Amino acid sequence: MAPIDRLDDLLERFTVRARQFHTGPLCGRRRFEALAGRGFLHILRAGELTIFDGPDGARRVVTEPSLLFYPRSHDHVFQTEGIGVDLACATLEFSGGDDNPLVRALPRAVTVPIAEVSGLAGSLGLLFDEIDDFRCGHRHVVDRLFEITLIKLLRWLLDHSKDAGLPPGLLEGMADPQLARALTAMHADPGHPWTLAELSTAAQMSRSAFAARFSQLVGSTPHDYLTSWRILVGQQLLRRGDPVSRVAAELGYTASSFSRLFTQRVGSSPRAWLAAAEP
């Protein structure tokens, strides 16, 4: 089967921006406060780090260079003993905030040793060189390299979903080579009137086998997933300023049917939702 890009349409429609805020030694104790719509990507370059996660303060210790990824707003505390801990940290702003489909599909915290992520060493080498040698445009280069690091981490998660302990959802479905073909088809063309027969054909499976595996790994029926995806895309288009009639047409609905569906799923009409979402 020809290769497909499982992340392309997701990252095209739901962007992520990284902003570096700390590089260098970390001494003592530091709290990273949960703020709505903000995640974190920490890179432990060296040293031993004790982490306290969430309101229950669950404790764990990281002893090797690792990526520490918090996709959604989540309190956590880092504590060090002595010297030798070297960190590079960035905040992450996912478009759509906690409703971003990638954010929703991820656990609240992901820790992966750097040595396990194939192809990451070169990108981190560029990132650390830029961090250690301040030059013009420094912040923009560092931020983009954090984003590249995140994409390579997402690739790893797709290829090692069982090791990462991903819950049922989008990434579990995308990790399945056959389901991924149906999911990427829906992501690329949400306005198409997809049928179970078309989606199972894309996955090269029988309809019954496709529906069963989709429900098991993604946690919903194909139709329900497609409807949820259309609502998420519609919210992005509304934020962009597209009128309801244009959004509805792009997603395969009349304006009235889209408004009814949106209200059922979200709890308010598209216009009321947009007014409440605007800062």
Account of the 3D structure:
The chain has 279 residues and is α+β, with helices and mostly antiparallel strands. It is 48% helix and 20% strand. The chain has helices at residues 8-13, 101-105, 120-132, 138-159, 161-164, 170-175, 177-188, 196-202, 207-218, 222-240, 244-250, 255-266, 270-277; strands spanning 16-25, 29-32, 38-46, 49-53, 58-62, 66-70, 76-79, 86-94, 110-113. The strands form 2 sheets. The chain has a 5-stranded antiparallel sheet, with helices on one face. A 4-stranded antiparallel sheet has the order 2-7-4-5, with no helix packed on it. A hairpin with a 4-residue loop joins strand 4 and strand 5 (58-62). Helix 7 (177-188) crosses helix 8, helix 8 (196-202) packs across helix 9 (207-218) and helix 11 (244-250) packs across helix 12 (255-266). The longest helix has 22 residues, at 138-159. The radius of gyration is 20 Å and the shape is globular. The termini are far apart. The model has no long low-confidence stretch (mean pLDDT 91).
